[in-house]
Write a structure and sequence with these properties.
259 residues; alpha/beta; 7-stranded parallel β-sheet
Length: 259
């Protein structure tokens, strides 16, 4: 059964809620998991990396929160089913799910795009979100309702060259989100998506200065976003403060899409 931490004093926005976050070992997923925990949620941390996922769960516990880590590859439906089943076994409820895990995929024009790369990016970035909702929705219904947040991308609304698999998958995530939102709007499940611009992660920090500066230049605000800025929007969508919000897409992109 879900337990409370006696060290917690302030009541957070997600107090008493159980949240599942995929790709929570680093970047946006980690920031979301940490913020949700700080707002009172018990967080199920999922990632393909045992080391990174354990690190996030440990950080939550050190800060007085509750979390457990479960390794899962979201491109495999059985892994996703096991993840949700274990959450229900451990806590008996699921209120919030963030489908965040994803990959960039190959960088290539479509005429030379590798078939295996296409299959991998679609199975992770699009099918993985479908598998997540497929198993999360029944669990959330059984828990009395809640919120699902799918991490899409600014490239879910527009395109860029040499990223056909990624662009197609993220466009698909937005459409899938809207469909699910309509299907469950009258059953107390709100389903929304977030479209980050280019976010400051270790991957981007490893770029050469010229390449990184070029990405910065794509954003009218003149900088990259941070994982924490995306997490704040996810927190709002997960909370009761967004009680009349479903089927929506929120870009966190420093003005990228306004150009």
């Amino acid at each position: 059964m879900l337990q409370k931490n006696s060290n917690k004093i302030n009541v957070g926005l997600l107090e008493g809620k159980v949240a599942l976050v995929t790709g929570a070992g680093s970047g946006i997923g980690k920031a979301i998991a940490l913020l949700f925990a700080s707002e009172g949620a018990t967080v199920v941390v999922s990632d393909v990396s045992v080391y990174a996922g354990d690190e996030t769960a440990t950080a939550i516990k050190i800060n007085g929160g509750f979390a457990f880590f479960m390794e899962a590859d979201i491109s495999k439906p059985k892994d996703v089913q096991n993840l949700v089943d274990m959450t229900m076994k451990q806590y008996g409820m699921l209120h919030i799910a963030v489908n965040n895990a994803g990959i960039t995929g190959p960088i290539s024009p479509l005429g030379a795009y590798p078939i295996d790369g296409w299959d991998k990016v679609i199975s992770t970035n699009l099918s993985g979100v479908f598998y997540g909702m497929r198993y999360q929705i029944p669990a959330i219904l059984a828990s009395g309702g809640g919120s699902i947040i799918n991490i899409a991308s600014a490239l879910g609304k527009v395109a860029t060259k040499a990223a056909g698999g990624y662009v197609a998958a993220k466009h698909g995530v937005i459409g899938l989100t809207e469909t699910a939102a309509l299907e469950y709007a009258d059953q107390n499940i709100r389903i929304n998506s977030i479209g980050p611009g280019y976010i400051q992660t270790p991957l981007l920090n490893a770029l050469e200065d010229d390449a990184r500066n070029a990405l910065v230049g794509l954003h009218p605000m003149g900088r990259l976003g941070t994982p924490e800025e995306v997490a704040e929007v996810a927190l709002w969508l997960a909370s009761d403060k967004a009680s009349f919000v479903t089927g929506s897409y929120y870009n966190v992109d420093g003005g990228y899409l306004a150009q």
